[in-house]
Every structure is written in structure tokens, then in C-alpha cells.
Amino acid sequence: MRKQVFNHSSVETHWQKIWEEKNLYKLSDMNKVVNAFYNLWMFPYPSAEGLHAGHAFASTGSDVYGRFKRMNAKIVFQPIGYDSFGIHSENYALKIGKHPREMLEKTTKKYEQQLRSLGHSYDWRRTVTTSDSDYYRWTQWLFIELFKAGLAYRKKTEVNWCPSDKTVLADEQVMSPAQAGKEAKDARGNIIKGKKDILVCERCGTQVEKKLLEQWFFRITKYADRLLAGLKKIDWPDKVKLAQTNWIGKKEGINITYPIKDSNQEIVVWTSRPDTNFGATFIVVSPEYAKQNLKNLLIKDVQSKVEKYIKLSLSKSKEERLNEGRKKTGVFTGLYALNQLNNTQMPIWVSDFVLSEVGTGAVVGVPGHDKRDFEFAKGFKLPIVRVVVGQDKDQSDITDVNQVQEEEGTMINSEFLNGLDINIAIGKMMDFLEEKGWGKRVINYHLRDWLVSRQRYWGVPIPMVKCKLCGWQPVPSEELPVQLPEISDYKPEGKGRGPLANHPEFFKTTCPNCGGSAERETDVMDTFVDSSWYFLRYPSVDSKSSTKLPFDREITKKWLPVSLYFGGAEHSVLHLMYARFVTMVLHDRGYLDFDEPFPRFFAHGLMIKDGAKMSKSRGNVVNPDLYIEKFGADTLRLYLMFMGPMDGFPDFRDTGIEGMRRFVDRVWELFTNFKNVVVLDEEGARFIMIKMHQTIKKVTEDIEEFRYNTAISSIMEYINLLRGVASKNQKSKIKNQKDKSRFKNKHFNNIRCAEWDEALKNLALLLAPFAPHLAEEVWVNILGQEFSVHTYPWPKYNPEFIEEDSVEIVIQVNGKLRGTISLSKSEAQDKEKVIESAKKVNNLAKWLEGKEIKKEIFVPEKLVNFVL
RNA sequence: GCCAGGGUGGUGAAAUUGGUAGACACGCAGGAUUUAGGAUCCUGUGGGGAUUAAACCUCGUGCAGGUUCGAGUCCUGUCCCUGGCACCA
């Protein structure tokens, strides 16, 4: 028979054109919908290099699911857009000396072409580009909504500053170099080596600095508890939920107040372990706390020493303090606090290891229970006391404390808390302290408010006006958008103000309140504000009624929240938390009926190449275009989905994709060469049907759980079987041992074609989500079915066929495999029968010989185990 | 340090409730075809042992124990890796 070659490029471009012409993936009316399914992939930012294979891996994962749902009677809305504002786009524009807007046209065009060539089923009619003014006017609207709700405010504080990007950053955008996937750089761009605990800019890997600036913040901390509680009701991967929980960092504790000896003042510390307070031997306050609260109490002898220490500490950034190693510095203030619990006087020290932003900025030193306090106590020869609280007795919090105990510490017993579980002890202690009026329960969070100002050009102008008389005023909604002007000097200068500050024609304006002269805010918004609400916009982009609001309320009711959100886990505490926050705010403002935007989120993994994350600097970026051209989009899609689990970290290899292309050719050959020639007898037909229904079941269940790799492998098994039947070369095509043994006794002689047709038809349907072009070509042009395979109902399996006629029983002796027998289903249920047959197996006699069978373990339809 | 998740062939990986470990592929080896190479097809492929051949035996899921008729799967300890948080009191 002649070898058939699948001409991928002509087949794929042909069907892409037809799909487009027939609007296969475009929804005509967003209002008339039943069974709506909003299938969303996190939109990319358009980079000049285009999509790499990692994008293709992720987006294909989403597309497969969308196609599967479409075939399962859902009206699928699958949009795509561009997160086009932001430092990432702007930095590249600066590098090549082109205006970001000019660059944007090229990059989005390239992205669209690439996504289309992958055969994705996007609704290209409804797209979103965050840098378009008809999108960002609504981002400005959102800002004003937050302002009106009291959730957008200005604050002067120490903020993260990236010296390379010349802007401030939110806490969430500052991370370890490993997290950013970059090598740490200093302000001049030189690689930093050998230093630990460096925090860098998420975008460029430059070590961040601290600056004291007044900036715009969103009050996300107000939603800390809501953000935590909401996690309980959404279907997300545990690791993502956990990352958010950790980031929010809710901790219950208590503020304990100690009187300061010989004064009428008090000192307040926050602790989560008041049960150890019997063992408190000193107090340490942060330099900031000391400066604010203790200065006036200092006696002359120590005053200059303490002030010198405070001054020195405050001149250092937080990072510098931390980087100086674990050796703790400090100074005694000469003051004492009274611990009313054990009537001791605790010396008050100042040390820079205490962070001013945590708790009250003052810590009670319990060196018997805390490693840092222990180090401090050892360093300055302060007493070490360990409290025995119930079950805490043996489990030391500090490894070397027990040893120290004998040498220099005292062990005391707290009768008050004796024998209690640690959590109960903590609760009891808090009750006690509150009753006495010595303390008050306070919950602390790690989460900080979201800093949204950016001193850059390429972003949404913050729609606020500052009037000397009226203060900050929002721009009236009818004046939105505040257009981002086209300027040529858009390079950031690093003076703490954005490039727009050099353009009086932009910022000079009048006050919306009093009409007097006023100035606009010249900073722009963090890109994460743009992406915090884009999913609300997609379904409504072409709605006429969305002129007063960014989204049509009726359409939103039908389509939101998002049915399945597909994206990377690297956004766990960035985009995913911001989007939840914004959705909650809009819900509370009465614009939305739901307060969780993504009830179901799947976190895909990250594709790597040669063991490392793909990046331009490493030079290991895989361009999907070359593979599409050489092997075809379907081959690439199948390969990407087959490489491993969707949430894994597959390593792209050329040889792997070649193997997948061979598979595609074999599929093509099966359809073209064996469409009509195969004939089956009744027994052979049933044999094929069993495998077919088993495959349908497996593929259906696997896709639903994103186990695409095993779905594809079961399709491969199915095809191997069909090819074996087709070529009558039984032994060679079927490698699966189970199929092989069953195959042996079957005959494929008499004419009987209906089942064969059904087998091929269902094969095309099962392939459709993974290889949409191949499936369509085969469906229409070979099997002669009606266009389109992608709107044809997904095959259902018949449970009658899933159960095989005969089953293989495993025979074990003392738990070890000694043989197998094949029995009919009914026989396999009967213990006596199975044991009888099992004993007849040749090999078994030598194992049972001369030994007494103590026990016979029988699992119906599975195994029999002889225990000797 | 704390909290998660994970260690299975040369490689990517499979393995409902404990019940034939390594499906499906890649790679590799041998063979067929070919002037040759490539492509294709066939055979083999966890380690070790044994046999003329087939059947066969034995070890094997990071390591050490345990529970069980039976453990990749459950329990205890331990080592390593990945991710999140981190002088957070």
C-alpha cells in the first residue's frame, strides 16, 4: 500500500480559514445563552519576541479544555487579549528606542498570528488591550470607585524602589532572585554574587532600595479576612491557596502592656505566645519605637549612647540590617518594665533586629523559647528562663536551649498552665491577661496595603487632581479617560516622579470641585490594576449598554464568574489576589452579584528547556513557529500535552516531537489506507468495541481532570490496536500485553463494517481537542461527516462494553506472583471455582508441594493468594 | 527555622479503594530494506542469574524500620529535592 503523508501546512491553514469564515468560535449574541461556559486563559503581555513554547504549552492546555466543553453541549466563550501596559513592554521599547505604542501594533499582530496558527478556538471578536483608551478609562473608573469607597489613599512611608526601573514597587513585586527567575543585579546592572537574602524587583532582578515617598495605596488589608475566608469556597490548587494564606499571614496574638519603672509611661508588646511570658526576662524595642516613645525617659548617663545607636540604625535600610548577619547589636536604655505576672523587672533594650512594622515594634524577650531572643540574651548576658507548659516540656523550640539550661538557665514551672495543651494554654493566658487588664487581643497580618503608584510613562494615568484648597479630587466620570499623552521624553528619570511630571500641558488643570487651578497626579498605575478586572470586560466589549459601566450587567449575570481560569501559579499572590480583592470591592459597591471571580482555577506548570526556565538571557527560548512549520500545529499540540502532567515542568526536546509526528502520520495512514478495507467478524467487532468504549471513558475522565498525557496515551493504545487489526499484523502493532493476549484468539475475516466505521469516527472525535485540524480533515474529507467535528457531540461510552467478557486472575503464593489464569466474569466471582482452576496451573504445583495451605485469600475478579 | 508538595528504568512518565510496578512514548541495541545515509518496518530493552530453547529464579519505586496474606501506595524515623513564608516575636 502506498505511503500516505499528512500535509500539515495545507490542511491546517485550510481549516483555520474555514473556521474563521464560518465563525465557528465566535458567539453571535452574548445575551442569548444557555449552558454558558467561560473558558479563560490568563492573557499575556505582548513581548517583542513573540510567544514561546511555554506560552503554547499553557494556552493549548486551556484550548483543549474549551474544545472538550464545546463538544459537551456547552456554549463556550474563550477570549484572548493583551496586558499591554507596563514596565515589561516599556523597558523593551526603551531598549530598542521605539515608542511603546508603535511597538505594540507589531507585537499584538505577531501574537494573534501565532495563536491562530496553533489552532486555538478564541473568539477574536471580543478582545481586550489594556493600553487602549476605551479599556483604561474603566481602569480609571475603577480607581475612582476605590477612592470613593475610601479604599484608595495616599500615605508617606518607606517604599520599595527599583533603581533600574526607577519606580516604586508593591510588596508583592519584591522577591528573591530565584522567585523572579533572574540573577540579582545591583543598581548599575552588575551581577551580585555570594550575597544571601537579597530582595529584587520582580521585573528586572535589580536589588530594591528603600525610599521615603508619598504614594497611592489600595486598602487591601481591609479585605484580609474576606480574602482568607473566600479561599474556603473556591476550587483552587491547595498550594496556591496556601501561598495566599501565608502571604496574608493572619496571626492571633495579644498586646501586653507593662508599666515602665519610675515613670507614668507604659510599654506595649505584641506576642502570639503569652503562655511563655512567665519566662520573659527583658524587653527589646526597635530603634523606631525607641525614638518615638522612649526618648524623653532616658537618663543622662545613657542618653547619648542610645541616641547614637538609634541614629545609626535608622540610617540603614531594612536589608542592610538583615544582611549584617545574625550577630545582634543593641543598647540598654537604663529603663525597666514591670512584669506583673512574675513580679520581675525586665531591662529595656534597643536593637535593630526588632522590626518596627511587626506588631507594636517592641518585643518581649523570652530567651528560653525563642531563638532570636536566646541569641540576644547570650550576647548581652541576660538571664535565660524556660517555662514548662504542659506538653511543651520535652519539645524544645530551640535546639541548644536544653544544654544551656543546665549551665546558665533556670527552669520554672507554671502551675497556672500546667498540663495544658499548648493552644489551650495560650487561650487561657490571653483570657487571664485581659481579665487583669494587662493585655488586649490583637490580630496581626503580614499583608500590607497595595502600592499602586508607578513613576513611569507606559501605564494608566491615575485620575486624580490635587487642588490646594480642596485637596485630592477624582476626575469626574464624564471627563474620563484621562488620556495618556503621546510624548517623546518618556524615559524614567528616577527623581521619584514620573515622566509626565515634565509636561505641564498634561498636569495643569482646574479643580473639579472649586474650579481653581490644580494639578493632575503624574504617576501612572501598577499594571496589576489593569489585569485585576479584565475578565469582567471580555463578555461586554461589544455591548452597547456598557457606556456607563465597564461591563453590561445582564451579560455579566449570564457569563460570570469565570467557569475555568487557566494560568500560571507564579501569580498566586500577585494577580490572583489583586483580582479577588477588586472583585470583592465591586461586589460590595453593588456592581457584581459574586465576590469570587474564579471559582475554579487550574495552575499549569512551567515549561523548561535544558533544565532551566526559558529566558532570552539564557538563550534557551523555544520558538513554536519553527515547529509548527516543520511538524504542524497538531503535532506540536499533541507533543506539548503528552510530555507530562499539565501541572508539571516538562523539558522540551526535539526528539520527542519527532516521535509525535510519526504518531500523527500513523493516524493519517490508518484513516487513508484502512477506511474501507477492514472487515470484522462478530467476535472481532466486539473486541474493537470494548477497547473503543474503554478509551472513550478514559479520555473523557482524563480531560476533565487535565490529565492530558494519559488521555493521549490511551488514544495511542487504541490506535495501535486498530492498526493491528487493519494490517492483520497482529503481533507487531499491538505492544500492550493485555491487548495482545486477547487479540490472539480473535478472527477478523467476515464482512462486517459498521463497527469499524464507528471505531474510526470516535477516534476522530477523541482526537479533536488535541489535534483539531487533523480531526476536522479526517471527519469531513475522509469520513464524509458534516462540518464540524468541533461542534459534534462528544462520544458517550456504553458501560456494557466497558466490562470485559473475561478477566485475568492473579495467583499468588505468600503474596508473590506465581501465575495468572483467564476466567469468564461469572467464574471469577466464585471462590471455589477460582481456587480449583488456580491449583491446576502448571507452575503452581512446585510452590504448593509438600506445604500446608493455611489460608486462601480471594478477591473476586482480581486475585487468589495461597498463604503457606 | 516554619509550612506545603515530591523522590519510580538511560529519559519524560503510568499505576481507582493496598492486589501482576514501569502503561504510553523518547532514547538505545540488533535485524530488514537501501549503493550509502536518512526515512520506514520488525525484534529486544529495569538490574542480576539460569537454560539448547521456552518455561524459570532473584533483587528492585531515596534510605532504615513497621503494619499486612500482600506496600510505589498506609505508619514511624531519616536523607535529598522543589515551592511558599521568614530576624513576623
Automatic annotation (TrEMBL):
Keywords: Aminoacyl-tRNA synthetase, ATP-binding, Cytoplasm, Ligase, Nucleotide-binding, Protein biosynthesis
Cellular component per GO, a single term: cytosol
Aminoacyl-tRNA synthetase class Ia domain sequence ranges: 447-641
Positions with a binding annotation for ATP: K616
UniProt cross-references to PROSITE patterns, sorted A to Z: AA_TRNA_LIGASE_I (PS00178)
UniProt cross-references to HAMAP family, sorted A to Z: Leu_tRNA_synth_B
A GO molecular function held by the record: ATP binding
Protein name, entry field: Leucine--tRNA ligase
GN (gene name): leuS
Homology family: Belongs to the class-I aminoacyl-tRNA synthetase family.
Any one Pfam family match given in the protein's UniProt record, by short name: tRNA-synt_1
Localization in the cell: Cytoplasm
Catalytic activity: tRNA(Leu) + L-leucine + ATP = L-leucyl-tRNA(Leu) + AMP + diphosphate
Enzyme Commission number(s) from the entry: 6.1.1.4
Gene3D superfamilies: HUPs, Isoleucyl-tRNA Synthetase, Domain 1
One GO BP annotation of this record: leucyl-tRNA aminoacylation
Enzymatic class: ligase
Chief localization: cytoplasm
Domain (Methionyl/Valyl/Leucyl/Isoleucyl-tRNA synthetase anticodon-binding) ranges: 686-829
Short motif ('KMSKS' region): ranges: 613-617
InterPro entries: aa-tRNA-synth_I_CS, aa-tRNA-synth_Ia, Leu-tRNA-ligase, Leu_tRNA-synth_edit, M/V/L/I-tRNA-synth_anticd-bd, Rossmann-like_a/b/a_fold, tRNAsynth_Ia_anticodon-bd, Val/Leu/Ile-tRNA-synth_edit
Residue stretches making up the Leucyl-tRNA synthetase editing domain: 246-433
Lineage of producing organism: Bacteria, Candidatus Woeseibacteriota
